[in-house]
Every structure is written in C-alpha cells, then in structure tokens.
Amino acid sequence: MFDRYEAGEQAVLVHIDFSDDSSKEDLQELQMLVSSAGVNAVEVITASRQAPHPKYFTGSGKAEEIANAVRTCNADVVIFNHPLSPSQERNLEALCKCRVLDRTGLILDIFAQRARTHEGKLQVELAQLRHISTRLIRGWTHLERQKGGIGLRGPGETQLETDRRLLRVRIKSILRRLEKVQKQREQGRRARKRAEMPTISLVGYTNAGKSTLFNTITDAGVYAADQLFATLDPTLRKIQLQDVGQAILADTVGFIRHLPHDLVAAFKATLQETQEADLLLHVVDYSDEQYMDNIDQVNDVLEEIDASEIQQLMICNKIDRMEGVEPRIDRDEEGVPIRVWISAQQNQGIDLLFNALTECLSQSIVQFTLRIPPKEGKLRGALFRMNCISAESYAEDGDWLVDVRMPTSDWNRLEKRSEIDLSSLVVKH
C-alpha cells in the first residue's frame, strides 16, 4: 500500500552533530544499520548544529547540498541518522526528488526484513503502521480528493480519512492477534513457574554476541551474524545447571540507543520474557570503545519496560579481541558473581559462566511466611496469580498466614508495586 525503497539501493547518509548529548547519535552505528539493511552508502554528509531546523532538520544550505549529492551520485534514498517529523520528511523529499528515511524508518525496515515467525511479522507490521499513520499524506497522490459518484456522495469522507480508518481497523486486528500470543506466552510462563523452573533472559546492545552465546550454551543453531538486529524472534531452550536443575534460557531482540517507542510497544509480548525473568544475562561487547555508553542504553530500556529490578549478571564478551584478558569471574564484597569474562565465539570461559549461573540462581529464591490482614485480599490474589504460595492457614484473629516461595526479582517487583510495606507483613520465626 505504501511506497518503500528496495534493499540494494544507493543511499546518501546524513549525520548531524548536536551540542546536546541527548540528541547525539553515532555515525558508525548508522553505517552498520545501513549495511544491515542491504543498502549501499554512496556518500556521507555531516554537519553541526545547535538545534534541528524546523523545515529541513538541517539548514537550507545543507539541504541543498544533500539534494545536489542525490543528483550527482544518482542516489535512490536519503537516510538521516535522526528522527524526522512528517513535515520535515515531506519538505526534504520535495527538494531531493527521492525517498527520505529517518533512523526509525530504517530500523523498521531492517526488522521487516528479519521477521521470520508469525508473531514477529505481526509485531513489525504493528510498529510500521503506527509509524506510517503520522505520514499518511505521502502514501497516495489522491489524498485530498473527495469521494464522488453514485452511492458515495453525502458524508464527504476524503481519501485521507478512509486510509486512516482502514489503518485503525488493521491496527486493532493486529492488537487482538498479539493479545492471543501474549496469553499463550503467559500460560507457558505459569507452567514453568509451577514446575519451579527459573528463566534466564539474554539482554544487551545489538550485535553484542547474545545469539552466539545462546548457540554455544544450547547448540540451538539460532541465526547469528556480525550485523545489527540479526535476532528478532525470541527463542527459548532448556539448559541443565548443577544444584539448580533445569532452567529456561531466552534469546531476545537486541537494544539500540533511542529505540523507537513504537517498537518497544509492538514487541511487548517478546520483551515480557525479559520482564518475567529470574536472572538477566547482560551481554556486553567489551571490545567496543563505546561499551559504557551501550550499557547505559540497555539499562535505560530495561527501566522503560519495568525490568530494572531483576538481578543482573554482566557477561563481558569478545575477550578474544582484547589483549591480556583471560576468562574469570568478578565478585562483589559478599562474594556474589557480578561479571563473567568470556568469548562466546571461541568457547572461552563458558564453564565459569555455568558456575556463576548456579551461584546466582541458588541465591535468588526467597521464602517467607506473610501475615496478611483480611483487608489486603488484593495482595493475596496477586500472590496466587504468581503461583508462589506453598501453604496457607488462618491465624486466630482471622489473618491469613501464607507461606511464599518466589524469585528475589519477583519479590522486589511486588514490593515496588505494592501500596503497603510488605516487609511489615513478614512473620519473624
């Protein structure tokens, strides 16, 4: 329905350096994104500004320079390393006489190419429709035309209004189907909790080596490549841990700085594997010069999806690219593992990783007896939904005495959401 550029085209890249740190993007990352999309970058245009220009995002002189570069290089598309407003996109397209994409549109296009499962395709389509809905004016040549002809006169619905209505209907349809997927995932998670099977979720910046590590641990054969967003659809596998038993390891989509909100919303069902995990393995490419920045970006997204309270074990990956670094475990003052140095590709330090996982998961279960007054029935209901009640009895005054056993991360999350101080309900033995 909408005009989209084809992979393999010639592109002019535009990168603006802003003085404000929150608006800064990485040019090298844009080039990797473009390469991942299968596009050939023929020219890179850079500039410095204090703030975006309201009409062209860049200044009018720089916009003319971009248009000249398009004509000179015979480019098919201009790709900005920044989010553009719909009006800025339209103005630039009118000037350059070619398709203009912003950072969000580029990431959406990569996701559309990579989606393999039914759920992944639905999630990408939802994100694309939400993004396109603000840019509908460019989708057709007849947008402002009133409907005419026998049987169509009267309401005067413009083609633009029709398109918007059709989009809303499609978005509602996708949301209903994704809701079903979410319920199926929820059932699987409840079954795993009943079986007291802990879940470990791999998180990290895109291209940090999560899928390579996942394959090394599980022999799953998941697609892994040195490109951004190689993994889109989540994969779950059972692993065996000493003293813990079976656990579920989940490989998830990588994060990126300024991840589009439409994508975070669309991938809610997928990201729930991360939200409900007992332990997060935060995989970091320590050979990357910007690894500290990437760690902050991942933690920002974890905060956004309400997963920041979950226990983290940092995996310092790709040590084979660093000099003088051997596999090891770093511990905190209490002796709990906080970092494991490994090379997933070279299979270095994997045994240390398993040792750290065993230690973290054996310490990450809490057991309490809670004394819940009758007026707090809502809390008791929440505990039953979490499948964490092992026994229940009544005190003489009518309070519930509830024995609970749950992952520390679930307890921390419950404490954060609860309106009362849960520690005051814990019975001291």
UniProtKB/TrEMBL annotation:
Keyword Nucleotide-binding: yes
Signal peptide: none
NCBIfam families recorded: GTP_HflX, PRK11058.1
PANTHER family per record: GTP-BINDING PROTEIN 6-RELATED (PTHR10229:SF0), GTP-BINDING PROTEIN HFLX (PTHR10229)
Record-annotated Hflx-type G domain positions: 198-365
Higher taxonomy: Bacteria, Pseudomonadati, Pseudomonadota, Gammaproteobacteria, Alteromonadales
Quaternary structure note: Monomer. Associates with the 50S ribosomal subunit.
Binding site for Mg(2+): S211, T231
Descriptive protein name: GTPase HflX
Coiled-coil ranges per UniProt: 164-191
Cofactor(s) essential for the protein: Mg(2+)
Function description: GTPase that associates with the 50S ribosomal subunit and may have a role during protein synthesis or ribosome biogenesis.
Cell division among keywords: no
Residues bound to GTP: 204-211, 229-233, 251-254, 317-320, 343-345
GO cellular component: cytoplasm
Gene Ontology MF terms in the entry: GTP binding; GTPase activity; guanosine tetraphosphate binding; metal ion binding; ribosome binding
Stated family: Belongs to the TRAFAC class OBG-HflX-like GTPase superfamily. HflX GTPase family.
InterPro entries to which the protein is assigned, alphabetical: EFG_III/V, G_HFLX_dom, GTP-bd, GTP-bd_M, GTPase_HflX, GTPase_HflX_N, GTPase_HflX_N_sf, P-loop_NTPase
